[in-house]
Amino acid sequence: MARVINDECIMCGACASACPESAISEGDGKYVVDASACIDCGICEGECPMGAISEA
Description:
This protein is α+β, with helices and mostly antiparallel strands. The chain has 2 helices and 4 strands; from the N terminus they run βαββαβ. Strands 1-4 form a two-stranded antiparallel sheet. A two-stranded antiparallel ribbon has the order 2-3. A hairpin with a 4-residue loop joins β2 (24-26) and β3.
């Protein structure tokens, strides 16, 4: 199951640079996870300083 990024995202980019599958990209006001590319490794969740990433 892919991770999701909520509205607490401050668009710092830490999650995107940490993602081994490049499944995270800039969206409209927050980063978004491409569910088809996400392997649910959880690395992004640990990198987010805002705690804005969780399991879907």
